[in-house]
Specification:
mainly alpha, 2 helices, about 65% helix
Length: about 55
């Protein structure tokens, strides 16, 4: 945890969700690492732009 920033996702939870959806673990692991990197960067950009530490969806 880092105040005012996102440093990553709970990938165990994401892999569990993928398994529940029937997505093979190997495919999910490969895709989630790419998706996580982009989302963390974008979420931190939004936190910085808002100046309040908040993320809007």
């Amino acid at each position: 945890m880092l105040p005012g920033a996102v440093i990553g996702w709970d990938l165990n939870a994401a892999l569990g969700l993928a398994a529940a959806l029937g997505i093979p673990a190997l495919a999910a692991a490969g895709l989630l690492s790419i998706i996580e990197a982009v989302m963390v960067r974008k979420m931190n950009e939004q936190i910085t732009a808002n100046g309040s530490g908040a993320i809007s969806f």
